[in-house]
């Protein structure tokens, strides 16, 4: 079984992976080095797991079983959100301004 799939534009991460770190902890380490979108794919839908995952700011969270159209939609939505974020980051950098409170929740 594949637990982590790295696409050119997304990381598809299962929460239950072998090793000392689970997918959420591993995602936190990845986020420290890159802002590539992470989509969690998991059978875990309990409140505690979802809450932990949300703190990593994933671009999506799909509970298994999911369909190919659902996965495709999640990937497409994360790509659109990532492009929008990168565009906003570029505009902020080029204008040398700090984002206001209304923009903070989207960054």
The unreliable regions are 96-100, 102-107
Oligomer: single chain
Strand order of the largest sheet: 1-2-3-4
Helix content: 40-55%
List keywords for this structure.
single chain; 107 residues; alpha/beta; four-stranded mixed sheet; 4 strands; 46% helix; globular
Report on the structure:
This protein has 107 residues and is of the alpha/beta class. Helices cover 46% and strands 15% of the residues. The protein is built from 4 helices and 4 strands; from the N terminus they run ββαβαβαα. The chain has helices at 23-31, 47-54, 68-95, 101-104; strands at residues 4-6, 11-14, 38-42, 60-63. The protein has a 4-stranded mixed beta sheet with strand order 1-2-3-4, sandwiched between helices. The chain starts with a strand and ends with a helix. Residues 96-100 and 102-107 have low confidence and may be disordered.
Reconstruct the topology from this structure.
Blueprint: E1 4-6, E2 11-14, H1 23-31, E3 38-42, H2 47-54, E4 60-63, H3 68-95, H4 101-104
Parallel strand pairs: 2-3, 3-4
Antiparallel strand pairs: 1-2
Can I get a quick summary?
The chain is of the alpha/beta class.
């Amino acid at each position: 079984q594949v637990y982590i799939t790295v696409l050119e534009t997304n990381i598809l991460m299962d929460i239950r992976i072998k090793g000392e770190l689970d997918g959420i902890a591993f995602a936190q380490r990845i986020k420290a080095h890159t802002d590539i979108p992470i989509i969690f794919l998991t059978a875990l839908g309990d409140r505690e797991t979802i809450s932990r995952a949300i703190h990593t700011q994933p671009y999506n969270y799909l509970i298994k079983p999911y369909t190919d159209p659902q996965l495709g939609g999640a990937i497409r939505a994360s790509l659109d959100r990532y492009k929008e974020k990168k565009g906003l980051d570029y505009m902020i950098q080029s204008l040398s301004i700090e984002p206001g409170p209304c923009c903070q929740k989207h960054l």
